[in-house]
Amino acid sequence: xxxxxxxxGLIVMVCWGIADFLQSIPIRRIGTLKTIFVRNxxxxxxxxxxxxxxxxxxxxxxxxTNLSIxxxxxxxxxxxxxxFMRGIEVGNVSLVSPISGSFSIITVILALLFLRESLSIVKxxxxxxxxxxxxxxxxxxxxIRSITSQKGLKEALLAMIGFGLSFFILGFVSKQxxxxxxxxxxxxxxxxxxxxxxxxxxxxxxxxxxxxELASIFIVHSLIxxxxxxxYIFGVGIDLVSLVTPLSSLFxxxxxxxxxxxxKEKLVTNQKLGIIVIxxxxxxxxx
Length: 287
Known about the structure:
Blueprint lengths: L3 H27 L1 H25 L7 H27 L2 H8 L3 H11 L6 H17 L3 H6 L6 H22 L4 H22 L11 H27 L2 H8 L2 H12 L6 H17 L2
Helix pairs in contact: 1-2, 1-10, 1-11, 1-12, 2-9, 2-10, 3-8, 3-9, 4-8, 5-8, 5-11, 6-11, 6-13, 8-10, 9-10, 10-11
């Protein structure tokens, strides 16, 4: 029987892969910052009633220490996302995307060192294959070879380290708290920090930006992405962080496949190879 943590990681992969594809629609229409602003407003509207229900039923509790840890994780995550955006702005997507998308390397290393987790040789091989698959799927290697400027490299590396550290911290605190409680505090803190970032960068919605179609996409996106966050928190709470995080980080493969189907984008050879490598990794890790 497949372990619950692996199932949770696969759910995250599918949810975030679909969410990233859906998010590409408003980003192309109103821009990244406005998209971030709207999606996090919806996250607050979605999660706050759940938090209020738990609070009034005495089921929402957290120690000051754990609250501080979650806030640190959220701040690091938002700063990493900002560095990722900066990397895209000043550098080449073909360079920034695969590097920042390899964040699970950092999380796995930290989990092995500080959480005393251990993986069998087969599962270690599976993790390596999945990370390599994400790298291959996220870019066109020929474009990387033709890049003469290293602009965006620093931002990509900082994003990779930051994302990896943030996911590790969230995995660490998930071992100590109820998954739903962590989800409430983590999602709301991330949402508030993201909104603050959007406001500071003047990413506010203006008249004419929204319509019924776009609003519907945002609502579906919010439901899916937050389902993915809960699945991740639940998964690392009951299983190895070094196992669940690499599985969760495979979501670019889902996004690429959806772009292939709906945007008629063509896969280059290394992306096709990357998808195959990911599938082999998933098969091995589920054994």
